[in-house]
Design brief:
The protein is of the alpha/beta class and 362 residues long. 40% of the residues lie in helices and 10% in strands. The protein is built from twelve helices and six strands. It has a six-stranded mixed sheet, with helices on both faces. Helix 2 packs across helix 3 and helix 8 packs parallel to helix 11. The radius of gyration is 27 Å and the shape is globular. The structure holds adenosine-5'-triphosphate and magnesium ion. The site of magnesium ion has 4 residues, from helix 3.
């Protein structure tokens, strides 16, 4: 079994997957970056995972630490997960790879000394125990700025001594793992590289800064996003080949991050009810319109139809009038039909209010 149930996970561990696994293929392919970027990352990962033991004899040994920095939504976490899968594919004949995702917020504690103990337990007990079970281990730490807090700027915080000690424990722990467990690779991400401790960064074998996608990449992300929709609604497939429209749309998305670009598709599907009910009817106008509105809405237009004008023909037997529960006991449930004077709680959201709006838009 590849995925370990959450209840069986050690403290501070968000998830644990044994790779390679088919359903992890998508992440690497989803992130569109120049070829060199992926090659550099994969080479760095494989160098450490495959040859870490030999390289640990060098005086300048690798720490098995990669830092992915950059603005939100630029693909850092997805790329880190994809990297683990692709590295595990490369190594599959030598054995399995465990991908361990750490919750960086599980370690800081209000209790003096506790943060440090938590970090030390993770790096000197939890990770070594898990790493001992399989030949290769990739540890993903998102938001690493809250794990390796920059000591030089933490001096005015509530508990500076504790923050210092926790970061010291991270550094000591990383050094220990580098020496004793050279086939463990840490892949970490951050939006705030200036908040990550300098000594932690100096241990990184690679600090890669992710940038917002350029115009050409935006076009590719849009085509990939439409292509994914076309898997479910094949009528959309021709749109992925309309380079003219793709480039017109991409022009409207300049300066957006990858997450926002992918979300544009969802916004376009939700511009009109017809499309939301049948995504196969999506048009370029929906996409271009959603992009002009930046995924939001123009606060304009005439009166909206009422609920029953919108959906007049839902049969009575599909209505669930008596199929709900309320915190407050509502006697109306006992006699739903003969209730001339609504119980006081009826006005607290039981849906039985007889109130009519003075300016009914009908
Ligand atoms: N360059 C890209 N190409 C294709 N898709 C991208 C790209 N960058 C981001 N995305 C998409 O945006 C979404 C968010 O990506 P992800 O969560 O990996 O970003 P992140 O950099 O970790 O963001 P954060 O810093 O907020 O955690 C994903 O669905 C991903 O596929
Ligand atoms: Mg992330």
């Amino acid at each position: 079994m590849a995925d370990i149930p959450r209840s069986a996970l050690p403290p501070g561990v968000l998830s644990m997957h044994v790779l390679p696994a088919d359903h992890h293929d998508r992440d690497w392919d989803a992130i569109i970056v120049p070829r060199e970027v992926k090659e550099r990352l994969l080479s760095q990962a494989l160098l450490v995972l495959e040859h870490g033991r030999k390289l640990s004899m060098l005086s300048g040994l690798p720490h098995g630490l990669i830092v992915l920095a950059g603005p939100p939504g630029t693909g850092k976490t997805t790329m880190a997960r994809g990297l683990a899968q692709v590295a595990s594919l490369a190594l599959a004949r030598k054995g399995a790879t465990v991908l361990l995702e750490i919750n960086p917020h599980a370690f800081p504690s209000d209790m003096l000394g506790e943060s440090q103990r938590n970090v030390t337990r993770l790096l000197t007990e939890t990770i070594p125990e898990i790493a001992a079970r399989r030949p290769f281990t990739v540890v993903l730490i998102d938001e690493v700025e809250s794990f390796a807090v920059r000591r030089s700027s933490a001096s005015f915080e509530a508990n500076p001594v504790d923050v210092h000690r926790a970061t010291d424990a991270v550094l000591l722990g990383i050094d220990e793992v580098a020496k004793n467990l050279p086939s463990v690779l840490f892949v970490t991400t951050t939006n705030f590289i200036e908040a990550v401790d300098e000594a932690f960064l100096s241990r990184a074998d690679l600090v890669m800064t992710f940038a917002l996608p350029d115009r050409e990449t935006i076009e590719k992300i849009l085509a990939s996003a439409i292509g994914e929709l076309a898997v479910q609604w094949p009528a959309l497939l021709p749109m992925t080949r309309d380079t003219g429209k793709l480039s017109e749309l991409a022009a409207l998305c300049e300066g957006w991050d990858g997450r926002r670009i992918r979300k544009l598709l969802l916004a376009a599907l939700a511009q009109r009810l017809e499309v939301a009910r049948n995504p196969a009817t999506l048009t370029w106008d929906d996409l271009l319109g959603a992009a002009r509105k930046k995924g939001g809405v123009e606060w304009a237009g005439g009166a909206a139809p009422t609920s029953r004008e919108l959906f007049p023909d839902v049969p009575k037997e599909l209505m669930h009038d008596h199929d709900h529960g309320h915190g407050v006991h509502d006697h109306a449930h006992d006699h739903p039909h003969d209730h001339p004077h609504p119980h006081p709680s009826a006005s607290l959201g039981t849906g039985r209010s007889t109130h009519t709006h003075p300016k009914d838009p009908k």
